[in-house]
Predict the 3D structure of the following.
Amino acid sequence: MTGDKGVFEMEKIFVKNCNVSGDIAGDGVLRKVLSYADDLMLCEVTLEKGAAIPSHAHKNIQVTYVVSGSISFTLKNECRVLSKGDTVLSPGNTPHSVEALEDSVCVDVFSPMRNDFI
């Protein structure tokens, strides 16, 4: 989204969710990259009940906000159930995983952006 001079492209500043097709990120998991710049990225993740994102780690700091539904989020060895309105902050390089306890929608924010999602 940003170039060498930090200039934003207008078509990436205003993003309509309905125009983003998303990527399958696992069985029952749809990820939409909605907005990003070099140092920040926002994604919408839709999980079907029973869908899981296996334990993984990345250099990026991640904040997850539960928009709807309920998920089980494991960070290191600590597992918590999160529901609508709850958040979790995953420090960089920290193993974490997710399981959807019901159909759920989450918003993930990463800093810096996840180049592997583009």
